[in-house]
Amino acid sequence: MENLEKLNKKFWKNRKVLVTGPTGIVGSWLVKDLLALSAKVVVLIRDIEPKSEFYRSGDVKRVTAIYGKLEDFGLLKRILSRHKIDTVFHLAAQAIVDTAYHSPLATFESNIRGTYNLLEACRIYKNSVRQIIIASSDKAYGEQPRLPYKENMPLRGRYPYEVSKSCADLLAQSYYHTYDLPVVIVRCGNIYGGGDLNWSRIVPATIRSLLENERPIIRSDGSYIRDYIYVKDVCRAYIYLAQNLKNKKLWGEAFNISNESPLTVMQLVKIIQKLMGCSRIKPKIINCAKGEIHSQHLSSAKIRKMVHWKPQFGLKSGLTETIRWYDDFLSKKQ
Questions:
Q1: Burial of 280 (0-12, 13-18, 19+ CB in 10 A)
Q2: What's the CA gap between 286 and 217, in Å, rounded?
Q3: Which helix (H) or strand (E) segment is 241 a member of?
Q4: Which domains does the chain have, with CATH numbers?
């Protein structure tokens, strides 16, 4: 279990943990790490995704799987009560910007209502729920006059996806300030890694295109600037923060997670091409992206200072592992 030296196996052994959204890219790898740490994992699954890493790896057989929606408040209360949940990782969300643009109501229901339902259930069972990690995003900041984003900046989402993340973030802060709930918010940039089956995202789409000897498609004009952080670093930051919530100074705080190495989309595509030996294949720029901010990147100075955490994977090492995962995944589809 590489790069887990800061994680406390004794702390997690037999700890009763709820993970929402286990079939997504982050949820799949988070469950894997928690199982390796000997936690007792309960997951809430909205839709069965048999191709996800969570199912593909067989981890679904090693957890208590409950099927339902975050919008079902009664279900959330039953999960926390019956399973005596100690720690909550809330990852479930509608996570595609373009989908939010075209289907705002469903996005608001999942990302906003789902979050306040879970927080309220945690409030009711506050005597047993001791750690809550809320997965937010750099999108919660909206467009700012200065970069990089810092945690003391106002949350100014404007487009549907951004607004849903701003609201969820503010709801978490409200439950801390009003009810002293032991919650921490984590804001990440673009997360990449094996198991991301949302082919509209630039990393999996580019890798798949190059593996199939096709031109990668860039939905923007290629100049949009983003942070890219490897999924294993994100999962381990979540776990590390949760095990440090005995320190009440962390309660109600938000932390940015970033490699602090922003890139344009075109720069990222060229790095992937070089790693895959496909530099001669010219990307196809279609410039059709809607509802997206042009430039976003994060400062991680706060988490370095307060809990001494930093990413363990550089972009090239993370992408190398990611390419290997998709090569294996796509070759087995044939």
A1: exposed
A2: 7
A3: helix 231-243
A4: 11-192+229-260+297-312 (3.40.50.720)
To 10 degrees, the CA torsion angle through 69, 30, 319, 240?
A: 130
Q: Report yes or no: 71 and 117 within 8 Å, Cβ to Cβ.
A: yes
Q: Rounded to a whole number, what is the distance in angstroms from the first to the last CA of the chain?
A: 30
pLDDT tens across 216-244, in order? 999 889 999 999 999 999 999 999 999 99
Q: How far apart are CA 15 and CA 40, in angstroms?
A: 6
Closest to 303 (Cα-Cα) out of 312, 311, 295 = 311
| DSSP secondary structure, 22-90, as one string | TTSHHHHHHHHHHHHTT-EEEEEESS--TTSHHHHTTGGGGSEEEE--TT-HHHHHHHHHHTT--EEEE
- C-alpha 60/C-alpha 72 separation (Å) is 22
CB 258 within 8 A of CB 298: yes
Element (DSSP H or E) covering residue 131: strand 131-137
Residues in the chain, total? 334
List pLDDT tens digits, range 89-134: 999 999 888 888 899 999 999 999 999 999 999 999 999 999 999 9
**Secondary structure (3-state) at 277:** coil
Q: How far apart are CA 180 and CA 283, in angstroms?
A: 50
Distance of CA 184 to the CA centre of its chain: 14
Instruction: Specify whether 101 is catalytic.
Output: no
pTM: 0.94
From the candidates 141, 149, 159, 161, give the one annotated as an active-site residue: 161
Q: In angstroms, what CA-CA distances link 266 with 111, 187, 314?
A: 30, 24, 18
Q: Does the N-terminal peptide bond of residue 311 adopt cis geometry, omega within 30 degrees of 0?
A: no
In this structure, how many other beta carbons lie within 10 angstroms of the beta carbon of residue 271?
A: 16
